[in-house]
Amino acid sequence: MDTPRRVEHQQTDRGYVPVYATGTVEQPWSSYSKTDHEVWDTLYRRQRELLPGYACQEFLDGVARFGLGDGGIPRFDDLNRVLRAATGWEVVAVEGLLPDEVFFDHLAHRRFPVSWWIRKPDQLDYLSEPDLFHDLFGHVPLLLNPVFADYMEAYGKGGMKAYAIGPDALMNLTRLYWYTVEFGLIRTDAGMRIYGAGIVSSKGESIYSIDSASPNRIGFDLERVMSTRYRIDTYQQTYFVIDSFEQLFDATRPDFTPIYNRLADRAPATAGDILSTDRVFTRGTREGWATNADN
Ligand code: PHE
Ligand code: FE
């Protein structure tokens, strides 16, 4: 995509900023403070050291290929040169979470929205909304993988369709995103590895998802995933495990309309349930699980 046209200015916490026709903004790179850059460097170094042996090779390769380093917050323009050449994706800067249909439209056009702002030093381990570190470090490296890149575009298109069908279909599709793009695990010859962005951007959950005996680890099954509630306030009680990105992409190729219809009559599983039909890799000990309701 060409550089989008600026269409208007919008009043924000940092004054008037140009807003593009796509609802995105220019990354305000020169406005990052020394502390902002240090937060990036600290988080980057911590995950870079931890993730070999935890994250899948495709993710680690992506990080290496971008040359994401600890030299401060990356410039999106630099990343986009690599990304466009590799898979035709690009990142666009946004103020924060977008309405579903706007988010889907970006993905469908191979644009990944990244929050331009980064968390404060007292939020290194947890914050409740996605910031630059989560969006960029968590999501963007895998967009260099051709199969995953295609999956993300297809997800955006599927999202527009689910949005038009209605809220139940949208919920089913959101669960798929949650248990794959955000919290997915993958089986490799070297063992169980992480590919989900919500995990790789969290030190605590990176270790927990792979090493802890508490959570269930269950083989990916499309309809099972789409009818399983999830936790937004704790580590996951269940991780779904794919064998390969090809498997994930192939499973999501069919038209979901009949699946949405089928699932509408089925009560969702709770986040920690194990069903008789599950292919269980690890049955969780449930230690430390919250007892309040799932989403
Ligand atoms: N095949 C899905 C549909 O028809 C679209 C989709 C593809 C959804 C990939 C998610 C991931 O709705
Ligand atoms: Fe995310």
UniProtKB/TrEMBL annotation:
<feature type="binding site">
    <location>
        <position position="139"/>
    </location>
    <ligand>
        <name>Fe cation</name>
    </ligand>
</feature>
<protein>
    <recommendedName>
        <fullName>Phenylalanine-4-hydroxylase</fullName>
        <ecNumber>1.14.16.1</ecNumber>
    </recommendedName>
</protein>
<feature type="binding site">
    <location>
        <position position="134"/>
    </location>
    <ligand>
        <name>Fe cation</name>
    </ligand>
</feature>
<dbReference type="InterPro" id="IPR018301">
    <property type="entry name" value="ArAA_hydroxylase_Fe/CU_BS"/>
</dbReference>
<dbReference type="InterPro" id="IPR036951">
    <property type="entry name" value="ArAA_hydroxylase_sf"/>
</dbReference>
<keyword id="KW-0503">Monooxygenase</keyword>
<comment type="pathway">
    <text>Amino-acid degradation; L-phenylalanine degradation; acetoacetate and fumarate from L-phenylalanine: step 1/6.</text>
</comment>
<dbReference type="InterPro" id="IPR001273">
    <property type="entry name" value="ArAA_hydroxylase"/>
</dbReference>
<dbReference type="GO" id="GO:0004505">
    <property type="term" value="F:phenylalanine 4-monooxygenase activity"/>
</dbReference>
<keyword id="KW-0585">Phenylalanine catabolism</keyword>
<keyword id="KW-0408">Iron</keyword>
<dbReference type="InterPro" id="IPR005960">
    <property type="entry name" value="Phe-4-hydroxylase_mono"/>
</dbReference>
<keyword id="KW-0479">Metal-binding</keyword>
<feature type="domain" description="Biopterin-dependent aromatic amino acid hydroxylase family profile">
    <location>
        <begin position="1"/>
        <end position="295"/>
    </location>
</feature>
<dbReference type="Pfam" id="PF00351">
    <property type="entry name" value="Biopterin_H"/>
</dbReference>
<keyword id="KW-0560">Oxidoreductase</keyword>
<comment type="similarity">
    <text>Belongs to the biopterin-dependent aromatic amino acid hydroxylase family.</text>
</comment>
<dbReference type="GO" id="GO:0006559">
    <property type="term" value="P:L-phenylalanine catabolic process"/>
</dbReference>
<dbReference type="GO" id="GO:0005506">
    <property type="term" value="F:iron ion binding"/>
</dbReference>
<feature type="binding site">
    <location>
        <position position="182"/>
    </location>
    <ligand>
        <name>Fe cation</name>
    </ligand>
</feature>
<dbReference type="InterPro" id="IPR019774">
    <property type="entry name" value="Aromatic-AA_hydroxylase_C"/>
</dbReference>
<dbReference type="InterPro" id="IPR036329">
    <property type="entry name" value="Aro-AA_hydroxylase_C_sf"/>
</dbReference>
